[in-house]
Amino acid sequence: MPEIIIIGGTDSSGGAGLTRDTAAAHSIGCEVLPVVTAVTVQTNGALIATELMPEEVVRLQIKAAFDSGEPCSVKIGMLGSASIASVVVEALADHQLPVVIDPVFKSSSNGCLMRGSLPDQLLQRATIITPNLPEAATLSNLPQAATPLEIRRQAEAILALGPQAVLVKDGHGDAPIVSDRLFQASGHDVFCHKRLSFGRRGTGCHLATAIACHLTMQRDLTNACELAIAQVHKWLRKVQEN
C-alpha cells in the first residue's frame, strides 16, 4: 500500500486527530506513518488538556518515518505551536512530495490547539491548505467571510502567503447548499452538495487526509479534492445510518 506521513495530535475521544486520519487513509487504501505533535484530552464536547511533544521528539519521528518507508505525501494537522511548526518545516526541507495542511487552530468545542501562527515557510511548502471559514479568516487576517466575493478575497490573501492552492470549506456556513471552493493560480472550482442536517467531529481531518491519499495515487489536485469531499459525505451518511 502507498504510505503517507500524518503529522498531528491525538484525540482521547477518538473523534478527530490521528485516529480519524488513520481510519480515513485505510478506507482509501493507504498506510499511515504517524508523527505525534501533541496529546490532547478531549470529549465530544470539551477540550480538557493538551500536552505538546518535545520538538526533538517531533523531528526524530519525521526522520524515522522517512527512514522506515517511502512516503508519497504528507498531511499536517494539529501542530500545537509555532516552534513545532518550524521543526516540521526543517524536517521536510530535503523531501519533495505533496504536502496537505489542515490548519488546526481550535477544537470543535472552541478550545485552543495552536499557540502562535503558522510560519510563512510552512505555508510556502503547502501543495494545498484546507481552512474552514473561521480558519480562512484567521489566515487572511480578515473578518469571517459571508459571501463568495469575500471568500475569494480571503483565498487570494492566503495564496499570496505561498501555498499552491486553497480549499475553503463551507461546513460552517448556513446555506442549504454547501459550496467548498478550490482556488489555484489556474482557476477556481466549486464543489456543491446538499448540507446535511447533522455533523461530526473529525471531518476536517478526514478530508485533508483523503486529499493527501488521492495525491499519492497521482490524481490531479482538483480531482483529489472532488473525490475527498464525496468520501467525507459518504462517511457521514454511513455514520448516520448506523
From TrEMBL:
Q: Which organism encodes this protein?
A: Algicella marina
What SUPFAM superfamilies has UniProt attached to this entry? Ribokinase-like (SSF53613)
**Name of the protein:** hydroxymethylpyrimidine kinase
Q: Does the keyword Membrane apply?
A: no
GO (cellular component) term, any one: cytosol
One GO term (biological process): thiamine biosynthetic process
The keyword Oxidoreductase appears for this protein? no
Q: Which UniProt keywords apply?
A: Kinase, Transferase
Identify a single GO molecular function assigned to this protein.
Answer: phosphomethylpyrimidine kinase activity
Checking Gene3D superfamilies in the record gives: 3.40.1190.20
- EC number(s) recorded for this UniProt protein: 2.7.1.49
**InterPro entries, per the entry:** HMP/HMP-P_kinase_dom, PM/HMP-P_kinase-1, Ribokinase-like
* Pathway note: Cofactor biosynthesis; thiamine diphosphate biosynthesis
